[in-house]
Design a protein that fits this description.
The complex is a heterotrimer. By secondary structure, chain B is mostly helical. Chain B is built from 18 helices and eight strands. Chain C has a domain at 4-136: Beta Polymerase, domain 2 (2-Layer Sandwich). Classes of the chains: A alpha/beta, B mainly alpha, C alpha/beta.
Chain lengths: 201, 432, 206
């Protein structure tokens, strides 16, 4: 009897002690010096500013320099709701960031559209840019954002330089979308009990 | 520690009687106020440069896009583009009950959420003809003045950062954290408070709130004095803000400005004085009015408003009466949980309010309050159902911002940043 | 009842419709759409009335489809501390257009643009009537109209696609482009549209 197994060929070196040390070094450097690109739009941007201020201070986590130029940023923190008019702007800013880059979606509106399930709001920035960490809250407390940043640190420390997929650019496809249309419709649907309780729109 | 005497070279001829720098009209050199702007001739397609600022930019105070036409460094024309934060609030409001709209009001002007809550609740109560209790009135004054303080602190911190001074930002935000602690103590949330309900408040203040707020009012003036010492007579600050972005009295009225923008241009109009609400006429406070209508005057007006808000907070704390916080109307206010679970009538009231919402009579009402940014108006039109036919927010920042092209003509590009900062916009309210 | 109403009736006669006092105590006076420009000028300039401050301009569409769209102007006299609300009925069968009051109060500039964007009401004489809150080539309609569904007319994927395709730099207005001589670098269809004088013309228009 034959068993057919799907395998993927790993290109390049197999991991060994030297490469894992190299991975550790690279990941440690990247994680502890994440320069954020604060794409702050609304209320979450104020909590972002509060996290940057003296009480919560995310400079102690390495995010000392807020890079307002995407060319010099590591992590795009979308803090706040994203209307459709702003969608091409965040896509362009994301495309301008050089690898390695990560995205933190801060707040309910950036993650799913939040309370704004209407004609004007993008229902989650993951329909437009790939997201690494979602921080829920409306707005998330500064401790919540810091926890999200620490989760991102953990994710980065689990990466490896051997895998080119991790650092591959993900441009929009030829239809101008990041995901297939059915998937976008599926993740943008209203969900949960509360929407249908009053039989309003 | 030895005291040193430092000679400061101010770009002014001296200090006036109040110890403030004397104004000197800026000489022509491509800079200046309105007088120079009219002389700049524009030829399309000439060597002017088109520069796009934003919508993602650290100094635009949100997602604002400014397209400027530059002749060298001089702004010949400035065309703002807004709408990058348009969230469809007014459309959403037509599908929500009145109490369900209160959390939406937090998110329009997110720098002073409690004031927004109060503004909407006042309009809904005016529409429904509900009179709130004395304790609720004083609590709402406290909420409004706390919001004024935190909004002006954001304005101060971010404007100082835009003009190069980083430290006042940290001081201002530390003061905000203390108010945030109080807001969190009261409502459970730092920023999105949703503190009012139609007919009352979401909850009464906890015991530690009064002592916390009293402590805040005692120590807050010290921070204001520190910021004042750092900025008000600072040569860089004065040089960058005086005679910049001048808007005369008639222009300010014609452009429908409101709030500190209007008062800095010399118009003594404050809704708390001239169309009083929440018993503001019984409080003892001053309304600062500027003279020259430039950025420096707006800074002084807002700084002084913080002092006056402190005064009002102290008076409100002193006069806070006991009594119920919500109006005693079971059709409007939810009964307490224990009564709703045990008493049939209370359960029915609870059910009707939650499932059907509180119905407003047919009609309309407009209430404008003195938001930190200006006149925040709420216009509600009802057709007798529990959801408004139209919820219109009269946005002070939107209207104040429309005067930016007029103010920016003839100034340098760096002045444009100062002028934009002085308008005190919050894009959530501009775009709604 | 605001005494300006009687003075208005004396001056303009039939152009002034009904006047009521609203639930908040303010006077609402309805004005015919053709007389709007003169009535507003009279309100602003005549002595003793002097409504020099425009508080707000907005529109209301009722859930009852038979009722006309109401344009609401909130005017205020700063020295006299008096408010007045002026309404204009725009029946939906006719063209939704009135004269602009930008010449009287400069603050009406963006307010009228917003009413155009959200309701589709045209203001004749407005110097720059284009969409302000949505992007200029927004094709779904006028959002605050009652026949516009809450979530918009297109599917979410289509909305994302149209939003991402709306090139921000293609939305410079004609005057902005004249500055930088960038007209030649625009895409062809955009040049054609601008040449024809279309400003955010909707393929789907009411």
């Amino acid at each position: 009897m034959k068993r057919v197994l799907e395998t993927t060929e790993v290109a390049g070196q197999s991991p060994n002690w030297l490469l894992t040390r190299l991975d550790d070094l690279v990941n440690w450097a990247r994680a502890n010096s994440l320069w954020p690109m604060p794409f702050g739009t609304a209320c979450c941007a104020i909590e972002f500013m509060a996290t940057a201020a003296s009480r919560f201070d995310f400079a102690r986590f390495g995010m000392e320099r807020q890079a307002f130029s995407p060319r010099q940023a590591d992590v795009l923190i979308c803090a706040g709701r994203l209307p459709f008019k702003l969608a091409p702007v965040i896509r362009r800013v994301y495309d301008q960031m050089p690898q390695p880059k990560w995205v933190i979606s801060m707040g309910a509106c950036a993650s799913t559209g939040g309370i704004f399930d209407n004609y004007a709001m993008v229902q989650g920035i993951d329909t437009i840019v790939p997201v690494d960490v979602y921080v829920p809250g409306c707005p998330p407390r500064p401790e919540g954002l810091l926890y999200g940043v620490l989760l991102l640190h953990k994710k980065i420390k689990g990466e490896t330089v051997l895998d080119p997929e991790l650092r591959r650019e993900q441009p929009l496809d030829d239809k101008g979308l990041r995901l297939p249309p059915e998937r976008i419709d599926e993740i943008s649907e209203p969900f949960g009990n509360s929407v249908h309780q009053f039989r309003s729109a | 520690m030895n005291k040193r005497t430092v000679e400061l070279e101010l770009a002014t001829p001296g200090l006036d009687a109040q110890g403030r720098p004397v104004r000197v009209p800026l000489t022509v050199g491509g800079t200046g106020g309105g007088e120079v702007a009219g002389q700049v001739a524009v030829e399309p397609g000439s060597e002017h440069m088109l520069l796009n600022i934003g919508p993602q930019h650290p100094a635009t105070h949100g997602v604002l896009r400014l397209v400027v036409e530059l002749d060298g460094e001089v702004v010949v024309r400035c065309i703002p583009h807004v709408g990058y934060l348009h969230s469809g609030f007014e459309k959403l409001g037509e599908y929500r009950h009145y109490n369900q709209i209160i959390p939406l009001t937090d998110r329009t002007d997110y720098l002073s959420p409690m004031a927004n809550n109060v503004g909407f609740a006042l309009a809904a109560e005016r529409l429904m003809g509900i009179a709130i209790t004395p304790r609720c009135t004083v609590l709402r004054v406290i909420a409004c003045e706390m919001s004024r303080v935190i909004s002006h602190m954001v304005w101060l911190g971010t404007t100082a950062i835009d003009l190069g001074a980083f430290t006042p930002f940290l001081w201002a935000f530390q003061e905000r954290e203390r108010i945030y602690d109080l807001q969190e103590m009261w409502t459970g949330a730092r920023l999105t408070t949703s503190v009012t309900r139609v007919g009352g408040m979401m909850a009464d203040i906890p015991d530690a709130f009064v002592t916390g707020l009293r402590h805040f009012t005692e120590t807050f003036p010290k921070t204001l004095h520190e910021i004042d010492r750092v900025l008000t007579r600072n040569a860089v600050w004065v040089g960058r803000t005086q005679n910049v972005g001048v808007l005369r009295r008639e222009e300010a009225i014609n452009h429908s400005l409101s709030g500190p923008m209007l008062r800095a241009s010399g118009v003594a109009y404050d809704l708390r004085r001239d169309k009083p609400y929440l018993d503001y006429e019984t409080y003892d406070f001053d309304v600062p009015v500027g003279e020259h209508g430039d950025v420096y005057d707006r800074y002084l007006v807002r700084l002084e408003e913080c002092h006056q808000s402190n005064r009002i907070l102290q008076q409100a704390l002193a006069r806070l009466p006991d009594g119920p916080v919500n109006v005693d109307d079971p059709r409007v206010i939810l009964p307490s949980k224990s009564r709703a679970m045990s008493d049939m009538e209370a359960m029915i009231y609870h059910f009707k309010q939650v499932m059907e919402g509180v119905k407003a009579p047919v009609g309309e009402a407009y209430v404008g309050i003195e938001n930190p940014k200006g006149e925040l108006g709420t216009y509600l039109v009802s057709d007798g159902s529990a959801k408004p036919v139209r919820w219109r927010i009269r946005p002070p920042s939107f209207i104040n911002l429309s005067s930016l092209p007029k103010m920016a003509e003839g100034h340098l590009l760096s002045d444009l940043i100062a002028i934009n900062a002085s308008v005190d916009i919050v894009m959530g309210e501009v775009d709604r | 009842m605001n005494p300006s109403v009687d003075a208005l009736r004396a001056t303009f006669g039939n152009a002034i419709g009904r006047a009521v006092v609203a639930r908040d105590g303010e006077t609402i006076v309805t004005v015919g759409r053709d007389a709007l420009g003169e009535v507003m000028r009279w309100l602003r300039d005549s002595a003793g009335h002097c409504y020099d401050y425009l508080v707000d301009v907005t529109a209301v569409e009722y859930r009852d489809a038979e009722r006309p769209i109401e344009l609401v102007y909130f005017v205020r006299s700063l020295e006299r501390r008096v408010d007045l609300r002026v309404k204009v009925d725009l029946p939906k069968e006719q063209e939704l257009a009135v004269d602009s009051v930008v010449g009287l109060w400069a603050g009406a500039d963006w307010l009228e643009r917003e009413v155009y964007d959200m309701f589709g009401v045209t203001f004749r004489g407005h110097p720059d009537l284009r969409r302000i809150l949505m992007w200029e080539t927004y094709a779904e309609g006028y959002p605050l109209r009652k026949d516009f569904p809450l979530r918009g007319r297109f599917s979410r994927a289509e909305q994302v696609r149209q939003a991402l395709g709306a090139n921000p730099e293609a939305h410079y207005s004609m005057e902005e482009l004249a500055i930088a001589e960038a007209f030649d670098e625009l895409p062809e269809d955009m040049k054609e549209r601008l040449r024809r004088g279309e400003r955010g013309k909707l393929p789907f228009s009411e």
